[in-house]
Amino acid sequence: MDRTMLLGVEGIKKTILHGGFGEMPRFITGTKVSFHFRTQLCDDEGTVIDDSKLVGMPMEVVIGNMFKLEVWETLLTSMRIGEVAKFWCDVTHTGMYPLVAKSLRRIAEGKDPVDWHIHTCGMANMFAYHSLGYDDLDQLLKEPQPLYFVLELVKVQQPSEYDRETWALSDEERLKAVPVLHGQGNKLFKLSRYQEAANKYKEALLCVKNIQHKEKAWEAPWLKLEKMGNMLTLNYCQCLLRQEEFYEVLEHTTDIINQHPGEMKAFYMRGKAHVEVWNEAEARADFDRVLDLDPGMKKAVKKELAILNMRMEEKKTEEKLKYKGMF
């Protein structure tokens, strides 16, 4: 079937490649839609940018959940289950695609879907670092252009037909979920189940960041969420320390310190990570900063400095044995 139509939305044309079956699904708010997608340039070769089938799993969105690429909701709600359609969308609908594609690619690579440790939204992050990390997406962001989306609607689930994960919640529901997830993480940490605790803290943090991205930076609501996010990040880092992921701790705590140079706990945790990787000068500098910010931490810092001294002695002994063996 090759039938081109307009959807009543300016800047969109639809071509049905394979008809679906059954009645039109009900796409009410909260409906979860599973689909495969292929994104192509509007060039003579039909250059493919992304293809979910190569990843091996369909994409999921929840209707009415403010997905960054709003046009996909419009396209999907014109389809029947099993239908395959090709949509031409002009630049008014495709400008956010590079940011969405970055998150989807990170998922496919087994990484976090968003750079949640960077305390700016995706667009501000791009301007700060001048790159999304993918050359083709950088080019699309600099020079927006029309795109083709080939979609295959796989499944439609009404809100009562699936267990809603935090990414599928409304902002109000996310806010309510944060203290619950935080409490669950704390209990798991006390039981020494550090990976499970880390997952809870990260899930809560993603809820916070999803809401925060919609607020104006550095205004009161944004700052309140920022404080919550920093607390969760530091809890997450505590788990990473127990799992000996020291360099990731250095990364996350440094991000916090760069934004909030008065965050004592971030300096303390970064100092502990520096100790574990034998960064003596950096560890001492961080613990000095801890005492500047909170003299009441003197006893805790003294303990950490004793550990640092012991670690450095161990390193010297190891190096002596190593060089002794060489000569």
From TrEMBL:
Gene3D superfamilies: 3.10.50.40, Tetratricopeptide repeat domain (1.25.40.10). The keyword Nucleotide-binding does not apply. Residues 30-83 form the PPIase FKBP-type domain. TPR repeats lie at residues 264-297. It catalyses: [protein]-peptidylproline (omega=180) = [protein]-peptidylproline (omega=0). Signal peptide: none annotated. It is an enzyme of class 5 (isomerase). Its main location: cytoplasm. GO terms for molecular function: peptidyl-prolyl cis-trans isomerase activity. SMART domains: TPR. GO terms for cellular component: cytoplasm; nucleus. Keywords: Cytoplasm, Isomerase, Nucleus, Repeat, Rotamase, TPR repeat. Its EC number is 5.2.1.8. PROSITE patterns: FKBP_PPIASE, TPR. SUPFAM superfamilies: FKBP-like, TPR-like. It is found in: Cytoplasm; Nucleus. May be important in protein trafficking and/or protein folding and stabilization. This is peptidylprolyl isomerase. It comes from Umbra pygmaea.
